[in-house]
Specification:
Layout lengths: L38 H25 L5 H7 L2 H4 L9 H9 L3 H6 L1 H10 L2 H11 L7 H8 L3 E3 L19 E3 L19 E3 L19 E3 L19 E3 L19 E3 L19 E3 L19 E3 L19 E3 L19 E3 L19 E4 L6 H10 L4 E4 L2
Helix pairs in contact: 1-2, 4-6
Length: 400
């Protein structure tokens, strides 16, 4: 193997002669043929050198080798320069600084990329490895690939901070659900983000999302978010899931003309008035809310799925002209009859157990029904038998 000669040690900068195989100062192995290394191994070689630099500098500090200060400073990694001369600066502080670095800085500087990687905690390192489909530390080009991702999953992990996501300016889809994420601030400038799955997290506001008009899907169920005000200007929003939150006001949604799916189960909402002009809604879930009237839905001609069980509604009259309705559930309500449904030919599933309904005659002729669910003893057995004869393929469930 031919010797790769250095004028000075790449680790501690000690002057070397051509015959040196081992650095007399730090013990680094100088004899190495790097001309035969492929790209992957070459990158690994440079990474090892940087690790050796860090170890050497730490050793110098611990042994108080002041006489070597000039040489050590010349050979130590860049991130150590930033902390010298400030006795109050901890290594952890420097780590956090690099995690706040801009994408342009990281993309343009391989040393900064390596610092960024080292500053990540173990959970985030595993996220990066998983995203890159590797089990080792990433190579430099792989880190660059990570910074260009359009989709990322960090869900179901012990992650509190999304700071490493802030540099992913091309990101279109992020899953951070079922994690103790404390705030969404690192997402504020991700103007290409389209789909955010952030349910069952610890943040309390979606304010950082206010300017991300590219958002099409937002899933914040099972969080402490109480206000939807920040979504008022997200004109491209198509799907919003905010169930099991303290949300009580849907008025910020009034101008979201592209909204197709809305789920707000187990919230504090009591009125659907804000939805009156949103005739593009296809799916609406308001189970377990204080909503008392379906009147605002009367013009929702595209509505196909409506779930309004355990609400305060007393009539289905506003649904009479919603000819596209396919699935309807209004169990545990005070609704007394099915008359408004008699012309809804596309109905496939109807759930109305624990209601005041005593006859299924209004739906007897609907040919597309696949399932009905009702309470036993409320509808005459003769009617049920007749229905089953007319609809042999329909599942009839008597649920107490």
């Amino acid at each position: 193997m031919d010797q790769n000669t250095y004028k000075q040690c790449p680790v501690c900068s000690f002057p070397l002669a051509e015959h040196n195989a081992i650095c007399p100062r730090c013990g680094n192995d100088i004899l190495e043929d790097i001309t035969s290394l492929d790209e992957q191994n070459l990158e690994m070689h440079y990474r090892i050198i940087e690790d050796k630099k860090a170890e050497w500098y730490t050793r110098c500090l611990s042994e108080n080798l002041n006489t070597l200060e000039t040489a050590v400073t010349a050979g130590m990694p860049e991130h150590f320069h930033s902390t010298r001369g400030n006795a109050g600066t901890r290594p952890e502080d420097g780590k956090q600084d690099i995690l706040h670095a801009s994408r342009s800085l990281l993309v343009g500087d391989p040393m900064k990329r390596r610092e960024w990687w080292k500053a990540l905690n173990q959970e985030w390192k595993e996220v990066v490895r998983t995203a890159l489909k590797i089990i080792r530390d990433p190579l430099d080009q792989e880190l660059l690939d990570f910074f260009s991702l359009t989709t990322l999953r960090c869900d179901n992990r012990r992650i509190q901070s999304l700071l490493p996501v802030s540099v992913l300016e091309n990101l279109q889809q992020l899953r951070c659900d079922e994690s103790p994420v404390e705030n969404l601030e690192p997402l504020r400038h991700l103007r290409n983000l389209q789909r955010l799955y952030a349910f069952d997290c610890d943040f309390t506001t979606i304010e950082p999302l206010r300017e991300i008009v590219s958002l099409k899907l937002l899933w914040i169920s099972s969080t402490a978010v109480s206000s939807l005000d920040p979504v008022a200007g997200l004109v491209n929003l198509e799907e919003l899931y905010c169930s099991e939150t303290p949300v009580s006001d849907l008025s910020p949604l009034a101008k979201l003309g592209k909204l197709e799916k809305l789920s707000c189960y187990k919230t504090e909402i009591s009125s659907l008035d804000a939805l009156g002009g949103l005739d593009g809604i296809i799916e609406l879930g308001i189970n377990s809310t204080r909503v008392g009237s379906l009147d605002p839905l009367a013009a929702m001609i595209n509505l196909e799925y409506l779930r309004c069980s355990r609400t305060g509604i007393t009539t289905l009259e506003p649904l009479r002209r919603l000819s596209n309705l396919r699935e309807l559930s209004f169990a545990d309500t005070a609704v007394m009859n099915l008359d408004p449904l008699d012309a809804l030919e596309d109905l496939e599933e109807l759930i109305f157990n624990h209601t005041g309904v005593t006859s299924i005659a209004p739906i007897m002729h609907l040919g597309n029904l696949e399932k009905i669910e009702l309470s036993p003893g409320m509808v005459p057995e003769a009617e049920i038998e007749r229905f089953m004869q007319l609809h042999p393929g329909c599942e009839v469930v008597l649920k107490a």
